[in-house]
Amino acid sequence: MAGRGTDIRLGGAAGDSERIANLGGLYVIGTGRHVSSRLDDQLRGRSGRQGDPGRSVFLVSMEDQLLTNHVPDAGPAPEADADGRTTDPRARNVIRHAQRVAEGKQLQIHRNTWRYNHLIEHQRQLILQHRDRVLRTDAALRSLAAHCPDRYRQLRGDVEEPVLVKAARQIVLYHLDRAWVDHLAVLAEIREGIHLRALGLGLDPLAEFHAEAVPLYHRLLDKVEEQSAQTFQEVAITADGADLASVGLRRPTATWTYLVRDNPFGSPGERVLRSLFGG
């Protein structure tokens, strides 16, 4: 199937479009139905583009995953011939019903995913605002000076203010970025098990996730302040800046990405494997 924005030219580069059109044009054969009827419609739409002739046909088995997963009690195809084929409208209705059920489940999954991601995105925006403030102002140095006044006075006598501002930024940004990555990892672990815990107690999984995620975020900022103050006390800061490597602070060479799982219970196959092997 050609990608979006790409039309399939009858006859291709050979320019034999008239002969292909006389033969009926592009014939799209689907060997099953997608979970979303929109994808089937897109496949159908590949034929007959821009006035060209064309047709489409879908061959569907009553044992396809779409039906066995979403209408397992559909039963065998009605009035099938010796080869097991049928064009009975009742079979089409079962397939359409399976797609509607599947689309409803997908919509609910995406809705739940959005609701979880909405909180994480809100926290990310707050972190970005805090990070931007650290980058653009002397907020980091002012915070460290308030937590470590003696250390600040000592350094101020030996190091110029712009150097101290830059060193404070490096310290706070390191701990802020590190804490955010750890926070995302913890949220991923919480969400992985929150449904089973909540359902076992008859609670709302999303409410329980919020109840854990919000306090964790506030503790994250406190942790950043504490660790930044400790580093400010220990690190050597000279006219050349802060030697963060001397206290073991090195920025990561790679970025981890934490994926949000759409279905917290996994696919039917994954659930069977977990039950067999205790995963």
How much β-strand is present in the residues? 5-15%
Q: Which structural class best describes the helix and strand composition?
A: mainly alpha
> Helix and strand string, N-terminal first?
HEHEHHHHHHEEH
The CATH architecture of the largest domain can be given as Orthogonal Bundle
Largest beta sheet: strand ordering:
1-2
Task: Supply the CATH class of the largest domain.
Answer: Mainly Alpha
Specify the biggest β-sheet: 2 strands, parallel
Q: State the helix count.
A: 9
CATH topology of the largest domain: Helical scaffold and wing domains of SecA
The gross shape turns out to be elongated
Kindly report the name of the CATH homologous superfamily of the largest domain. Helical scaffold and wing domains of SecA
Question: Explain this structure to me?
Answer:
The chain is mainly alpha-helical and 279 residues long. The chain has 2 domains: 12-100, P-loop containing nucleotide triphosphate hydrolases (Rossmann fold), CATH 3.40.50; 113-277, Helical scaffold and wing domains of SecA, CATH 1.10.3060. 59% of the residues lie in helices and 5% in strands. The chain contains 9 helices and 4 strands, in the order αβαβααααααββα. It has helices at 17-22, 37-44, 65-70, 89-136, 139-147, 149-156, 161-201, 205-234, 268-277, and strands at residues 26-30, 54-58, 237-238, 241-242. The radius of gyration is 30 Å and the shape is elongated. Residues 254-279 have low confidence and may be disordered.
